[in-house]
Design a protein that fits this description.
With about 350 residues, the protein is an alpha/beta fold. The protein has 14 helices and 13 strands.
Length: about 350
C-alpha cells in the first residue's frame, strides 16, 4: 500500500522539528503559536507540527498540541545525548522504514533518480512536482541523523555504522522487514497477508508480548542482535517477529524461546510454527529460519535438534552463559554470529 502524502514530512530542518518539541514542552499549543516561537510563518507551523506528529513526538487534537511519551523522553534527554531517541522517532515513520531496507539493497550507493523513482512508486504524493521537494526533506533528515552521506556527485551512501549502538529497529506490523526488490507490490502483499490473518495476528502479538516480558527471552534477543550488528547488518523487529536481518545479502528470521526441561518440546514446536508463519506473512520464502533457545535441550528432547535441522531446515542454536552453541553445519551457515 502507498504511504499517504500526509504521512511524509515536509519540514526541511530536523533540528527545527526538535526545537518545536521544546516549544510545545514549554506551552506552545496551536500551530500559530508554534510558528511564532520557531520563527516561521503560519502555514510552516502546520508543516513542522505535522512532521513532529509523523515521527511520534507530538500529538494534536483540534489545534491543541502536547507531547507524546517519546516526545517527553526526548526533552528529558540531555541535548548532546538525544541522537538515539531521535533516530528511534524518525525510524518509526513508514517512509523511513521503507527507505532503510531500500538502502541496504544498494550498499555501494544510489543516485537521486533511482531514489526518486522508488519514493514515487511507494507513496501517494500525487502531483509529480511534490516528489522532489519531499525527497529533499527526506534526504536532509537522513543526513542529519548520519544515516546517509552525500558524495560529491550527488549519490547517497548508506552509513550502517550509525546503527551499531542502536537497538533493533521497531517496524510497523504491516511493513516488510526484508523486502527483495523494494517494489510497491511487495508492500501490498505483506499488508494484505497481515490484514487477512487479523485474528491470528492478534493472538501472535499477545503471545509475543508475554514472551518478551521474560528476562531470558530479552537476553536472547539482545545477544543475537549484538552479533548481527557486529556483522555490519541491521537487526529489525516488529510486534511479533523477534529479529530479522539482511546479512551479507541473505535474509534471516530469528525466533527466541526460553525453555525448561518441562516445556522444551512445546516451546520448540511453537517456535517452529511461528517461524513458518512469519516467513509466509513477510513474503520472503528464501529467508533462513533460526530458532534460538535459552539452554541446551533436555536429554529426552535431544532428538528435536536433528528433526529441526535435517527435516525442517531450521537452524538451531542455544545459549550457554552468553555463548551461542550449535551444530558444525549451523556454525558454518551462521558464521557471523561467532
Amino acid at each position: 500500500m502507498k504511504i499517504r502524502s500526509a504521512d511524509i514530512p515536509q519540514a526541511d530542518n530536523l533540528i527545527e522539528v526538535v526545537q518545536l518539541v521544546e516549544k510545545v514542552a514549554k506551552g506552545a499549543t496551536t500551530f500559530q503559536d508554534i510558528a511564532t516561537r520557531i520563527n516561521k510563518i503560519e502555514y510552516e507551523g502546520r508543516y513542522y507540527r505535522r512532521a513532529a506528529e509523523i515521527i511520534g513526538l507530538v500529538k494534536n487534537f483540534r489545534n491543541h498540541s502536547e507531547l507524546t511519551p517519546l516526545g517527553r523522553k526526548l526533552i528529558q534527554t540531555p541535548s548532546d545525548q538525544r541522537h538515539h531517541v531521535l533516530l528511534k522517532a524518525v525510524l518509526g515513520a513508514a517512509i523511513f522504514q521503507r527507505l532503510i531496507p531500500f538502502f541496504e539493497r544498494h550498499p555501494h550507493g544510489i543516485n537521486r533518480a533511482i531514489l526518486q523513482a522508488f519514493i514515487t512508486d511507494v507513496t501517494d504524493l500525487g502531483v509529480e512536482t511534490m516528489v522532489p521537494h519531499r525527497m529533499s526533506t527526506i534526504i536532509n533528515w537522513l543526513e542529519s541523523l548520519h544515516i546517509v552521506n552525500k558524495l560529491p556527485n550527488g549519490d547517497l551512501v548508506f552509513e550502517k555504522d550509525t546503527f551499531q549502538q542502536a537497538p533493533a529497529i521497531e517496524f510497523l506490523i504491516h511493513e516488510p522487514l526484508l523486502p527483495k526488490a523494494s517494489s510497491l507490490q511487495e508492500y501490498e502483499i505483506v499488508a494484505a497477508r497481515i490484514k487477512s490473518t487479523k485474528e491470528t495476528i492478534t493472538v501472535i502479538v499477545d503471545e509475543a508480548k508475554r514472551e518478551r516480558a521474560n528476562a531470558e527471552h530479552r537476553k536472547l534477543i539482545n545477544l543475537v542482535a549484538s552479533r548481527v550488528r557486529r556483522a555490519g547488518a541491521i537487526p529489525k523487529t516488529n510486534q511479533f517477529i523477534d529479529l530479522a536481518a539482511l546479512v551479507i545479502e541473505r535474509p534471516y528470521i530469528f525466533e527466541m524461546k526460553s525453555i525448561t526441561k518441562e516445556d522444551a518440546q512445546s516451546q520448540i514446536c511453537d517456535g517452529l510454527s511461528q517461524l513458518y508463519e512469519y516467513r509466509y506473512l513477510q513474503n520472503v520464502s528464501e529467508a533462513i529460519l533460526v530458532l534460538v533457545v535459552s539452554t541446551a535441550l533436555p536429554k529426552p528432547d535431544a532428538w528435536m535438534h536433528e528433526y529441526l535441522e535435517k527435516d525442517r531446515q531450521i537452524r538451531f542454536l542455544w545459549d550457554g552463559e552468553n555463548q551461542l552453541y550449535g551444530s558444525q553445519e549451523t556454525r558454518k551457515e551462521l558464521a557471523f554470529l561467532w
